Structure formats: structure tokens, C-alpha cells
Amino acid sequence: MWRDLLPLGRSASSGGYFRQPWTAPEREARAWFVEQAEARGLAVERDGLGNLVAWWGTGRTDAVLTGSHLDSVLDGGAYDGPLGVVSALAAVDVLRGRGFEPRRPVAVGAFVEEEGSRFGLACLGSRLLTGATSWETARVLRDREGLALEDALADEGLDGSRGTWLDGVATFVELHVEQGRDLVDRDEAVGVASAIWPHGRYRFDFAGEANHAGTTRMEDRRDPMLSYAMTALAANKQARVSGQRATFGRVDVRPNGTNAVPSHVTAWLDARAESSTALEQLLADVERQAQERAGRDGTSLTVTAESVSPEVAFDPALAARIAEPHRWPVIPTMAGHDAGVLSAAGVPTAMLFVRNPTGVSHSPDEHAETADCLAGVTALADTLALLSGGEQ
């Protein structure tokens, strides 16, 4: 399965992945999922967003759901998301090989637009599925080319309608490559999640005055690039001194000319912290310094919160039930996941992590060793057997 999925959406130049939602590479990945599920005799459902679920067992209630996502960040790695989908299908194979028959139905899911790489709102598929985000809010979101989500779905033959299959799910378990080095430091191949740090995406709009790069004296400029540059440095410093995370990873400059002072700079801040209070303080500190610098530069600044996710504490009893028989460590994660959305919606949720030898993620260098991936499959199979209450 991994060999078949590996080339889909892969860049020949960087080796990274461009599987943005509702584009040809991601469409191929979803077709691959349907093919794999049907080859196993699993009944596949698709909603009007493109979310997919494949059912093993009879009935559609009190189910155990597993899976992840198939989309990627821009120039992303192979493992973030797809590892959880491939491992879920492989875990079904393992359980069948053991002669296991689930008493509760087991479902394998693939959510769309988890990364938010096209329409800017992370976990969009699961947010819409759970009702955390309304269709009226989502339908007008636009990608970098200005195409509205509603129109992008229509181009795929989708109408944006929300599936109802989640109503029958009693538990969700998501397997994911670890996006850090905690398991490496512990010398463990598999871990269980305790919580997801609160995080947010914020748009910083700096407005100045376009002018000639050669004829305009430095003291006469109203240059928003200077305001942005100091803000990026301030975000780095504030995050370092407080032990949190702050990243400006996307910038749009207008008019974007080599010989022109910019008139406008838009930059997006990704901020994460150990608590909601710490996140609010981090943002306040960065915005304060940015406003002070804008005042000195003769520019203006508007900050808009595009998405903010509170801390998610996974069901501690469920995490302990999964981890204790195997003595797997229970660790937090700083990355957002569909599991966090389902947990916030009231679905008892757990996560399994597979060791990442370098900790690198959201990059073509993202990696996990085959032996650890296989250990993750076995761990997920054991967990599904535990939760689905079947016999072998």
C-alpha cells in the first residue's frame, strides 16, 4: 500500500508532496483509498465534502473509528496523515489474519483538508462534519487563486453536504507519525497522546506607502516590510523566552517589485502554547511590539484571528486503558489533528504516535523507520481489538 501511495502528488524536484484538497493528486489519493477499502470488502461512504469512511462489520452504531487524512502541506512529507490511513487498513488485515471478528463495527476514515493548506482553515473536513464550523462560514473561504470553497467542491461534483455517519461513532483512534522527538528521547517506538496544545493562525496586515526604491530617501519611507521584519524577530524572541512556539511561514508582499518600496505586507503567524492563557499572552506581546514598530515606521497594522483552537485534553481513562497494558508513554503534542476536533465534539478520542527519528515534519525530510511503522500497525490492531470487543 505504501509503495502504491508514495508517488501520488510527489514533486520531482524537492521530493516533497503537494496533495492539496480537491486537486488531482489528492483526488488520486482518495481514489486509492476507495480501491483499497473495496478490495477488503469494506463498504465505503462519501459525504458532500469528500470525507470518506469504510465500514468493517455489521451495523453503523457504537462503532470504533480509526484513520487520518491524505492531504499535505505545501511541499510536505509522506507520513503526516497517510501513515494513519495506511496503518488503519493494515490493522484490519492484521486482525483478520488473527481470525478476529469485531462485536462493534470498525470504520476506517480519511478526512479532507486537515492541513488547511488550500483554504486556510485546518481540519476543515472534520470541523464541518462535527458542526464545529458551519457551512455558511466555510463556503465562502477562498484559496490563493480566489476560488471559493463552494465552487471548488462543485468542480469535484460535491455539494458540501455533511455526512451523518459520525453519529454512529462511539470512539475514535488516530495513528500519526510523531511531529517531534519525544519518543526518540524515550527510546520508544510507540506512544499515546495526552493532549494537544492550543494553537492559532493569525493574519497580520501591514499597510504603508508604495514608492521608488532608488529615489525615496530612507527617512521618507513608510515601509511595511520593516514593520513585518521586526515583528517576525519579535515573535521568535517572545516564543523562545516563554517556551512556546511562534512562526511566520507565509508572506504576501504588494506590489512585490524589486525596485519598489512595498505598499502592503500580509503575513500569517502560527502560534502555539502550553495553555490558552499562554497563547493569548504570546499573541498580545507580539502584537504590542508590532504596533509600536508600525508607529515608528509610519505604517499601520491590523491583526485578524483566522482560526483558534483551544487545548484538547484527550480522555485520560481511555489513554490509560490503551497505554498501560503495553507500558507505552503518554505524551502531549503541539500539532493539531482531526482527533482534536472529534474530541472537542464529545467523541471519546485517543491518538497513537509512531517514532520519528529526526523529529522533522511538514518537510520532504519527514520520515519513520519501517520497523517502527510496523510496530504502529500492531499497536493500532491491538487497540482496535481492545475497543471493538471482538473475539478471536
UniProtKB/TrEMBL annotation:
It comes from Nocardioides iriomotensis. InterPro entries: Amidase_Cbmase, Bact_exopeptidase_dim_dom, Peptidase_M20. It comes from the Bacteria. Allantoate binds at R201, N259, R272. Binds 2 Zn(2+) ions per subunit. The keyword Phosphoprotein does not apply. Zn(2+) 1 binds at H69, D80, H176. Belongs to the peptidase M20 family. Zn(2+) 2 binds at D80, E115, H362. GO terms for molecular function: hydrolase activity, acting on carbon-nitrogen (but not peptide) bonds, in linear amidines; metal ion binding. Keywords: Hydrolase, Metal-binding, Zinc. Its cofactor is Zn(2+). This is Allantoate amidohydrolase. SUPFAM superfamilies: Bacterial exopeptidase dimerisation domain, Zn-dependent exopeptidases.
